[in-house]
Amino acid sequence: MEQIQIIDSKKHVGETVTIGAWVANKRSSGKIAFLQLRDGTAFFQGVVVKSEVPEEVFQTAKNLSQETSILVTGEIREDSRSKFGYEIGITNIEVVSESHDYPITPKEHGTDFLMDHRHLWLRSSRQHAVMQIRNEIIRATYEFFNNNQFVKIDPPILTGSAPEGTTDLFETNYFDQKAYLSQSGQLYMEAAAMAFGKVFSFGPTFRAEKSKTRRHLIEFWMIEPEMAFTHQEQSLEVQEQYVAFLVQSVLDNCEYALDVLERDKEVLKTYTKLPFPRITYDDAIELLKKNGFDDIEWGDDFGSPHETFIANSFEQPVFILNYPKAIKPFYMKPHPTREDVVICADMIAPEGYGEIIGGSERATDYDFLLEQIKNHGLDEKEYSWYLDLRKYGSVPHSGFGLGLERTVTWISGIDHVREAIPFPRLLNRIYP
Ligand code: 4AD
Ligand code: MG
After folding, report:
1. How far is the CA of 232 from the centre of ligand 2 (A)?
2. Cα distance between residue 257 and residue 253, in whole Å
3. Which site among 47, 52, 187, 324 is 20 to 30 Å from 85 CA-CA?
4. Are 144 and 242 contacting, i.e. CB atoms less than 8 angstroms apart?
5. What pLDDT, in 10s, does the model give residues 145-179?
6. Ligand 1 centroid to 164 CA: how many Å?
7. Whose CA is nearest to atom 7 of ligand 1?
8. How many helices, marked H, and strands, marked E, lie in the chain?
């Protein structure tokens, strides 16, 4: 008997096959048992009809408890009533391993309870759908950057530098030295861009931020492209093409997952229209003030209500350009005609999901950067390699960082970033 995976059912209609699966749910009467089966690739229904199978098979089916692992044998048939479209008419069941008192039942559970059982919660259909979308975004990221001649370069995780400021670093001992877990690979990616032209990284990032919001993780994954001989305007074009490509890839390849999550596909389609709108920081402040936000002044960073209001003023993700120098990192290129702002942009996702990309053109002047490093209280010696990049053939270059989990949260249409990563690290959680 051929052993197949549920996802491949459509290729085996009318054939008798075996599938290794878990019992996600069960309904049975005296005559028929409906098993909701999952094997990691998909969920579908198995049907056991008492009058069509040996009595012990029907009894086994009736006694199956949630999450028992089984090998089922039967014929694949079309099932027009289900979203998945196929089911299996079971003729035999072999129990692989029993499961008793599975903690997550079809009733409602609180989020803390589910988070404590994250190792099991991942099996549920909603979590499965979110992880499928995450996987598609990862796959499409590699496709996009490979198609566009970017080289993948892996920056270190243990570092001595702090590109995004020293307040949220995870410190660790590195033998007789101090080291930090990377909060961004950007500075290394700048070195890589000078060696390979267009590069991107895709790795874990750590921020000891005392933020307890639905957008903040302590450990998250970031994609950081960096491009030599590239100004900010060209970088913005790459960013909007990349994000539109991610949305289109999820629409093309994750229809079922989007349906499970009841995500409106028509709304997602509007996010593939280019270009994305752009608004300056100055104009964004004006817009907020005109609309009754008196809790913000020029020079302040946006809070999430501000970002949401700005995003709601547009249909697509929006770029906010040229923030005040004082609230941005040391490496950003100063504006050519204004002292007070830098050449940068954040991309704000629609529907209140907030910032998904932060990026900028990078300062190229040695003396300017050295002064910035000192002004930001950073150790000059630690950045001497970074300054070297401005000594030996410095060129205009730009780059950005996209937060994977925020992007997954937005495209999936879920409420909280903690469900967009398999095992979230949150302010008060490192278990499981
Ligand atoms: O804006 P950030 O801090 O930018 C950088 O780290 C730059 N060095 C990137 C670059 O230019 N190469 O972070 C980039 C993105 C944010 O827009 C957000 O999507 C995500 O990373 N991010 C977080 N995601 C989840 N939890 C957190 N605590 C995050 N902090 C940032
Ligand atoms: Mg940012």
Report:
1. 16
2. 9
3. 52
4. yes
5. 999 999 999 999 999 988 888 889 999 999 999 99
6. 9
7. 401
8. 13, 17
Ligand 1 center to 217 CA (angstroms): 10
Q: What is the pLDDT of residue 157?
A: 98
Do residues 200 and 227 make contact, with C-beta atoms less than 8 angstroms apart? no
pLDDT digits (tens, 9 = 90+) for 315-371: 999 999 999 999 999 999 999 999 999 999 999 999 999 999 999 999 999 999 999
DSSP assignment of 60-105 equals HHHHPPTT-EEEEEEEEEE-TTSSS-EEEEEEEEEEEE---S-S--
Backbone φ/ψ region at 78: left (φ over 0), alpha (ψ -120 to 50), beta: beta
d(CA 321, CA 14): 58
CA distance 17 to 7: 13
Domains and CATH numbers, the chain: 6-97 (2.40.50.140), 118-420 (3.30.930.10)
CA-to-CA separations, 173 to 130, 181, 182, in angstroms, rounded: 36, 10, 14
Q: 401: CA distance to ligand 2 center in Å?
A: 8
Q: Do 401 and 185 touch, CB atoms closer than 8 A?
A: no
Atom of ligand 1 nearest to the CA of 360: 11
Pocket, ligand 1, Cβ cutoff 6 A: 163-164, 184, 186, 207, 209, 216-217, 220, 222, 224, 355-359, 399-401, 403, 405-406, 417
Choose the residue to mutate in 141, 184, 343 for probing ligand 1, maximizing ligand atoms within 8 Å of C-beta. 184
Q: What is the CA radius of gyration of the chain?
A: 26
Distance 432 CA to ligand 1 centre (A): 24
Nearest to 281 by CA among 326, 331, 238: 326
Instruction: State the closest ligand 1 atom to the C-alpha of 404, by its place in the atom list counted from 1.
Output: 19
Query: How far does the centroid of ligand 2 lie from the alpha carbon of residue 234, in Å?
Result: 19
Which residue CA neighbors atom 23 of ligand 1 most closely? 403
Residue ID of nearest Cα to ligand 1 atom 30: 216
* Residue 59 CB coordination number (10 Å): 13
